[in-house]
């Protein structure tokens, strides 16, 4: 087994202290440190986030999940723990025909700019999402229109879509005040959400500040506000919990977990898969035999036991133990391509540094691939500086930690986005008629056992191409200081600080 190189706890602590310097400066005039010890727990919560905003906190991008985790932007529909649709800004809904749904908008909701939620405002937000370029990932392959009819939003799809309610739960389809939407096409979430916290200031890609919104339609927030710092370095996030600089830290690296008090960390099983995407359009992995050779070369046990210190599960497919039905219903995969000898084929293997384990995992993979006969060059950058090249297919292989039910709570949307010809997040550049057919069938099947079976058929179709090699399923470690209570441990990564989160 390849051995990982570890620094001493003392060295890590010293390095983290240096990295931490300046990370947690107040985000704005409202973001003060005062009140942390208030008897009623109403002080401000300091939050260390993993990735800085990539699109100016636009809700039409992946930044939407930050707005959701801060409880500032809300959607018409929410999801329960089982992934079933529940009321949000809509109090009820009904399917009127195969392609038409009606959603009743909640009364008494005001946005942070003082304007009121109406069906017309909700329809406006959805319409802007459908016209965005690029469209939000949740709308990949979906033609959708929205219009107001009294207190209802009428949503119509080009083809029957049994998951419209779940689709509208995606943070990328958050409903904001009309003032958020600019003629330029940009969307500004500052002061335009409807949640228990109002986003009041954004300090570029470094900080953000939110204040409690006393006009909230639901349960009022117990904390006075949230001070966010974006800290891509995992050692610095862990150090922030140790030092008390942060009350909550996202995604503490596995290598840092053992340095923290066990009472301050929670291991959260995630519907997240570490996958090696292989470029099927150009380069050596255009050859199915070489893709198969890469698959045969990879030993995920080394990653689980070495890099992740057994805080992860070996992958049997794209979908992991967070979806128990996947393991129960998955059949053995037969008829796979056999690997060909690489004969020194030169490949570029890339990943990003924001998740501390990924560069280390890439180094292990490099050794395994080189032992199999590939010549490997490695590229590692911050995600914000590598995503564009990855999506453009400039690498032969890319290691990604990918949430499989992030958007609608249903894996079909992830498969549509990542593995179909028109998918907007198709790192493997895959365009395979069998995959497209299987994914379309899964997306069109009504919720329930039949849909789950169709999803597993689509998974098998993807795996047969060897365009994606699932390696392991993560268990994310969240850090919570002893002084905070009520943070959410959400496998879908949609909620984190809620109205119930407070300081003791």
Automatic annotation (TrEMBL):
Signal peptide from the UniProt entry: 1-27
Molecular functions per Gene Ontology: peptide transmembrane transporter activity
One GO CC term, this protein: ATP-binding cassette (ABC) transporter complex
BP GO annotations: peptide transport
CDD domains given in the database record: PBP2_NikA_DppA_OppA_like_3 (cd08490)
Keyword tags: Signal
Top-rank taxon, per record: Bacteria
Solute-binding protein family domain mapped to chain residues: 86-424
InterPro entries, per the entry: Peptide/Ni-bd, SBP_5, SBP_5_dom
Biased composition (Basic and acidic residues): 489-504
UniProt-annotated stretches for the region Disordered: 479-504
SUPFAM superfamilies: Periplasmic binding protein-like II
PANTHER family, alphabetized: MONOACYL PHOSPHATIDYLINOSITOL TETRAMANNOSIDE-BINDING PROTEIN LPQW-RELATED, PERIPLASMIC BINDING COMPONENT OF ABC TRANSPORTER
Name of the molecule in the record: ABC transporter substrate-binding protein
Organism: Streptomyces agglomeratus
């Amino acid at each position: 087994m390849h051995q990982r190189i570890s620094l001493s706890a003392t060295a890590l602590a010293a390095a983290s202290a240096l990295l931490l310097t300046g990370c947690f400066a107040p985000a704005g005039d409202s973001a003060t440190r005062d009140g942390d010890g208030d008897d009623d727990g109403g002080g401000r919560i300091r939050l260390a986030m993993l990735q800085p905003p990539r699109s100016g906190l636009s809700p039409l991008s992946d930044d939407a999940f930050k707005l959701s985790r801060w409880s500032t932007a809300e959607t018409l529909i929410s999801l329960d723990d089982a992934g079933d649709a529940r009321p949000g800004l809509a109090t009820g809904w009904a399917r009127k025909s195969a392609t038409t749904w009606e959603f009743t908008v909640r009364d008494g909701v005001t946005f942070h700019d003082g304007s009121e939620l109406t069906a017309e405002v909700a329809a406006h937000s959805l319409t802007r999402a459908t016209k965005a370029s690029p469209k939000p990932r949740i709308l990949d392959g979906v033609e959708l229109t929205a219009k107001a009819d009294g207190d209802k939003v009428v949503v119509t799809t080009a083809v029957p879509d049994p998951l419209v309610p779940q689709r509208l739960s995606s943070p990328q389809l958050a409903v904001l005040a009309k003032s958020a939407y600019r003629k330029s096409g940009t969307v500004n979430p500052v002061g335009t959400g409807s949640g228990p916290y109002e986003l009041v200031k954004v300090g570029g890609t470094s900080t953000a500040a939110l204040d409690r919104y006393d006009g909230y339609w639901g349960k009022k927030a117990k904390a006075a506000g949230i001070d966010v710092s974006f800290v891509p370095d995992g050692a610095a996030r862990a150090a922030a919990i140790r030092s008390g600089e942060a009350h909550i830290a996202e995604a503490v690296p596995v290598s840092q977990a053992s340095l923290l008090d066990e009472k301050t960390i929670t291991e959260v099983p995630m519907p997240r898969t570490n996958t090696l995407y292989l470029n099927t359009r150009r380069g050596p992995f255009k050859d199915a035999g070489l893709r198969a050779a890469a698959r045969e070369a990879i030993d995920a046990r080394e990653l689980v036991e070495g890099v992740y210190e057994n805080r992860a599960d070996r992958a049997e497919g794209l979908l992991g133990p967070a979806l128990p039905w996947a393991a129960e219903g998955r059949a053995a995969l037969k008829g796979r391509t056999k690997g060909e000898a690489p004969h020194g084929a030169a490949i570029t293997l890339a990943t990003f540094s924001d998740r501390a384990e990924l560069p280390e995992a890439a180094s292990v993979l490099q050794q395994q691939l080189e032992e199999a006969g590939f010549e490997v060059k490695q590229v590692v950058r911050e995600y914000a500086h590598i995503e564009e090249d990855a999506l453009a297919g400039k690498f032969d292989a890319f290691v990604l930690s990918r949430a499989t039910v992030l958007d609608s709570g249903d894996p079909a949307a992830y498969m549509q986005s990542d593995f179909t010809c028109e998918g907007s997040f198709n790192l493997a550049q895959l365009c395979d008629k069998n995959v497209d057919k299987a994914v379309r069938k899964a997306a069109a099947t009504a919720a329930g056992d039949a849909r789950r079976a169709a999803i597993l058929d689509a998974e098998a179709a993807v795996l047969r191409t060897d365009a994606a090699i699932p390696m392991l399923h993560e268990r994310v470690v969240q850090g919570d200081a002893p002084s905070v209570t009520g943070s959410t441990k959400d496998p879908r990564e949609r909620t984190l600080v809620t109205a119930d989160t407070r300081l003791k």
